[in-house]
Design goal:
The termini are far apart. The protein has two domains: 148 residues, no CATH class; 302 residues, Rossmann fold, CATH 3.40.50. α1 packs antiparallel against α2, α1 crosses α3 and α6 runs parallel beside α7. The C terminus is likely disordered. It has eleven helices and eleven strands. By secondary structure, it is an alpha/beta fold. It has a seven-stranded parallel β-sheet, with helices on both faces. The protein has a two-stranded antiparallel sheet with strand order 1-2. The protein has a two-stranded antiparallel ribbon with strand order 10-11.
């Protein structure tokens, strides 16, 4: 009994195939026809309400013709089904409509009810199957369209505006001009609020070390989100594209869930980074300078940073975000002499309005600062700081944007990793001291992209926009003069060394594409 029903259902499906093919082609034809009509209406201004009687009658005749074809196909399929059923199941006896049957001596006109029943069931099965298959095909097509062309609707991909912004910043800093470099072999340590390794763009990172100064957790986490955002600028691999995604990454959590940390805690994290043989320490943070200013320091964080530099570690730190209400100088530890201090720039190549100003002329109050000389004037360089695409956590999306010199710092840290990969002699080793750091700073001062009308350091714009391509290209041509320039820095001369070696550079602003929001200048 059961196998008979199974076989009968199989026969139904077999005979239904031509109907399905015909129906799918008809659906596609109708969709294309309606689309064409809509396009014509849009261009000519003629809508469906403008049709004359002849057009309406033609459409009705076409529909009637289609229904006749469907009915003919159904009759053919039903006949085919009955023949297959009779041959395979042995159901050869067929009762004809109007046949006289003798029962108890009486002639009775018998109607074959099975024919009507089978035909109705067959039509019902065909209709249901067409609906099911058509719905499945339509769902697959829609899913493919959304995943490949507009995946951001479901959060599978970042919005196109973020991808565009990222590419604009990669252009303005020369990242797109660099090939074959991804930070391989470079150890980079980020001191921040941690990292969320569950983020889809962080699945392939080389996380070599983790230290939680706040809660001593053995497993990586980020209860603030800032650290994940900064790490993504460097190592994201997925929706966004990190600058140096293959670095050996070390994460020290010294910022709590409120976004703050202590000097002692951050200093401990910096010391740990040094102990992990890091080449670069990225500090997207800052605060007030320690008592004593440039004359001497009692600040534990500044002392830790100076010790790291003395061991040949490149320290990159944020200039600060008080540009609209500036206190007169960059934040600490970006204010430390050999730290690479980074301000912010927009996608149009203009200074970000929140980027902090450097005090390079010196002061006595409220905290003594000695006059700074090239190439240590603050900030040294500027990098992407307005609406920088970043990874985010604890949100409906995995991607967003961040404005501030924190993002600028991470961008330069990633770019510096590319430079160290290209020129291994600048990497940290057992004999390292601050000499290579001084050489890098000279290169930065001479090979960053200045704004129109600029020929020397600017207290806001620094030595210009960070350009990793110019930095790498200039290395060979400038290497023979670097040692002489370092010695010249120590001489008490009146003339600005920068005026001797600086080559004037210019920048041409570009207009953002239509699918990008206007930059806030």
């Amino acid at each position: 009994m059961i196998w008979g029903l199974v076989l009968e259902a199989a026969f139904y499906m077999l005979c239904m195939i031509p109907e399905l093919i015909f129906a799918l082609f008809y659906i596609a034809y109708q969709w294309l026809a309606n689309f064409s009509k809509a396009a014509v209406s849009l261009v000519t201004g003629k809508t469906s309400n403008d049709k004359n009687q002849n057009d309406l009658q033609k459409e009705k005749d076409d529909e009637d013709e289609f229904l006749d074809k469907v009915d003919n196909i159904l009759n053919w399929e039903f006949t085919l089904y009955k023949k297959i059923k009779s041959l395979l199941l042995g159901d050869t006896k067929e009762v004809k409509d109007g046949e006289l049957v003798s029962i108890n001596g009486k002639e009775i006109n018998v109607i074959d009810a099975r024919k009507t029943r089978d035909k109705d069931v067959f039509k019902l099965l065909v209709g249901f199957s067409i609906t099911l298959v058509s719905g499945f095909v339509l769902s697959v097509i829609l899913l493919w369209v959304f995943l490949t062309m507009n995946g951001e609707v479901f959060g599978f991909n970042p919005p196109q505006s973020l991808v565009t912004w990222e590419d604009e910043y990669r252009d303005i800093t020369g990242i797109n001009e660099i090939e074959g470099l991804d930070g391989t072999g470079i150890s980079l340590c980020i001191v921040d609020s941690g990292i969320d390794t569950s983020h889809p763009d962080l699945k392939n990172i080389n996380l070599m070390g983790w230290n939680d100064v706040i809660n001593s957790s053995p497993d990586p986490y980020d209860d603030d989100g800032h650290g994940t955002a900064m790490a993504g600028i460097i190592v994201a691999d997925g929706g966004l594209n990190g600058i140096a995604k293959n670095v050996d990454l070390y994460i020290a959590k010294a910022i709590d869930s409120d976004g703050s940390g202590t000097d002692d805690g951050i200093a401990e994290a910096v010391d740990w980074c040094v102990s992990q043989e890091s080449d670069i320490i990225s500090l997207s943070l800052g605060g007030g300078q320690g008592i004593g200013g440039d004359l001497f320091t009692t600040d534990s964080l500044e002392i830790a940073v100076e010790n790291a530099i003395d061991e040949g570690v490149y320290v990159v730190a944020a200039a600060g975000n008080d540009g609209e209400n500036d206190d007169g100088d960059v934040s600490s530890p970006g204010s430390v002499e050999n730290v690479i201090c980074v301000g912010g720039v927009t996608r149009l190549g203009n200074l970000w309005s929140g980027s902090s100003e450097g005090d390079n002329n010196g002061r006595l109050w409220p905290n003594p600062i000695l006059p700074r000389n090239d190439p240590d004037k603050k900030p040294e360089i500027i990098a992407p700081g307005l609406e920088v695409p970043v990874l985010i956590t604890k949100s409906d999306s995995w991607w967003g944007w961040s404005s501030g010199t924190s993002a600028s710092t991470a961008w330069v840290s990633g770019g510096l990793a590319l430079f160290l990969q290209e020129y291994p002699e600048f990497q940290r080793n057992t004999d390292s001291d601050s000499t290579k750091i001084e050489e890098i700073k000279i290169l930065l001062s001479e090979n960053s992209q200045m704004k129109n009308g600029q020929s020397q350091h600017d207290d806001h714009f620094g030595y210009g926009i960070f350009r990793i391509d110019s930095l790498i290209d200039a290395m060979d041509s400038n290497s023979s003069n670097i040692e002489n320039k370092i010695e010249t820095r120590e001489m008490p001369i009146q003339k600005n060394i920068f005026d001797i070696f600086q080559i004037e550079r210019r920048i041409t602003a570009s207009v953002p594409p239509d699918n990008s929001m206007n930059a806030i200048e």
